[in-house]
Amino acid sequence: MRQLLNTLFVTTPNAYIRLEGETLCVEVDREKKLQVPLHHLGSLVIIGDVMVTPAVLHRCAEEGRSVVWLNRQGQFSARLEGPVSGNILLRQAQHSAARDGAITVNIARACIAGKLRNSRHVLLRGARDTKNKGDADALRQAARLLANHLRELPDASNLDILRGLEGDSARVYFAALLYLVRSEQRDTFSFQKRTRRPPLDRFNALLSFVYTLLVHDCRSALEGVGLDPQLGYLHAVRPGRPALALDLMEEFRPVIADRLAVTLINRGQLTSSSFEQRSGGAVYLNDQGRKTVITAYQQRKQDELNHPLLEQSVPMGLLPHIQARFLARTLRGDMEGYLPFLGH
Question: With CB atoms 3.0 to 4.6 Å apart as the test, which of 117, 148, 192, 270 could cross-link to 274 if both were Cys?
Fold first, then answer.
């Protein structure tokens, strides 16, 4: 369990949440683990099998304090709101921002900046770790090109230019991604470029599956704060497309999804037997492969790292929820501009 910003996240299985006077208590096996004054909390996020007393729910509803339930995988299940809720005002601000070209460009630029900065970090880290000089040179060259694109971002005045920079950067990044894979694994996980719908090789199949897990987490984070995950700024709005979730996940692709994919390959946790090829050349993870990835992904979400804005250690699985709240604050005008998460 962790209190971040004004939100209490309860993740401990079989925890019990009850009221004690003007405080909220969290017990595990009848032992009090946490006690927080209610007036310090703006919302409560419950993940997995956690019990909550009716008194807590009634008090939160009466005082406009939201309660959000996520399942064990972190996917959104439900949200409790009282009769007076600020979410309609937040959604109005979200729609108003989407009609404002300057705000739209600023948010889209921040999403891309976070993605490029974190992509460079992944490439430079790989260059430091590899013992192959050729691989290190290729990774550093790609990182230099991404740095050039980062310097061009402030002058990008519209979405077309921003999307062009993002597309060029993605091609550079994916062209270098294979150099993060150990040489003995490259025949099995050959990778030339990003292919989707369908993925045409094992590396692409792995990336597509991890990205699917990540976008679900981002969607749950946005729904948890009351934002509409389908109304985005960088990604175009289309029926059934979670455009804002895709916006939010951009900054997390390199540090969460791509690094996990490379780690699974380099450690030999996935092999050719983890995949199946279907008609038309499509390649997908099989049941055992998906199980391996999901297990590793859930473990990865438990890893802690330092959040530069909060200046405290947080589980990686909570990062989308923290950033969704920063985005909500930006749209409400409580923050001057959205600040993406930057890995270290």
Answer: 270
Q: State the Rg of the chain over Cα.
A: 21
Query: Tens of pLDDT along the chain (344 residues)?
Result: 565 557 787 878 889 999 998 999 999 998 998 898 988 887 788 888 899 999 999 998 888 787 888 777 666 788 787 665 557 889 999 999 999 999 999 999 999 999 999 999 999 999 999 889 999 999 999 999 999 999 999 999 899 999 999 999 999 999 999 999 998 888 888 887 888 888 888 999 999 889 988 988 898 889 888 899 999 999 998 988 899 999 999 999 999 999 999 999 999 999 889 998 887 788 888 888 888 988 898 888 888 888 888 878 888 888 999 999 999 999 999 998 999 988 76
Give the Cα separation of 236 and 194 in Å (integer).
20
Could you give the CA distance from residue 333 to residue 97 in angstroms, rounded to a whole number? 11
Where do the domains of the chain lie, and which CATH numbers do they carry? 2-85 (3.100.10.20), 91-332 (1.20.120.920)
Residue 45: name the closest of 1, 13, 101 by CA: 1
C-beta of residue 141 within 8 angstroms of C-beta of residue 123? no
Q: CA 63, 39, 334, 305 torsion: positive or negative?
A: negative
Measured between alpha carbons, how far is residue 290 from residues 204, 215, 293, 300 in Å?
14, 16, 5, 15
Alpha carbon distance 99, 140 (integer Å): 39
3-state percent helix, strand, coil for the chain, nearest multiple of 5: 55, 15, 30
Start-to-end Cα distance in the chain: 24
Continuous segment of H or E residues that includes residue 51: strand 50-52
What is the side-by-side strand order in the sheet with 43-47?
A: 2-4, 7-10, 43-47, 66-70, 76-80
CB atoms < 10 A from the CB of 156, how many? Answer: 19
